[in-house]
Design a protein that fits this description.
Layout: E1 3-5, H1 7-14, H2 18-25, H3 29-36, H4 45-55, H5 59-62, E2 63-65
Antiparallel strand pairs: 1-2
Length: 68
């Protein structure tokens, strides 16, 4: 896939666990894990907005395009 999710990098920078982020954003840990492990087929803008708000980052810091 050409889109890489760098959620783990942002979590490490904020010293936050996936569980903590899931609770703050209001989505299940399982769904957040799917996103973190690059297995998601889509992400809602509202979810991306909530993640960025909690991690105090931009979508570009979470999502990265790489050529296949």
């Amino acid at each position: 896939m050409a889109i890489v999710v760098n959620l783990d990098v942002q979590l490490a920078r904020r010293k936050m666990t996936l569980t903590q982020l899931a609770e703050r954003v209001g989505i299940t840990q399982a769904n957040l894990s799917i996103l973190k492990n690059n297995r998601a087929k889509a992400v809602r803008f509202s979810t991306l907005d909530a993640i960025c708000r909690e991690l105090e980052c931009t979508p570009a810091e979470i999502l990265e395009y790489t050529a296949d």
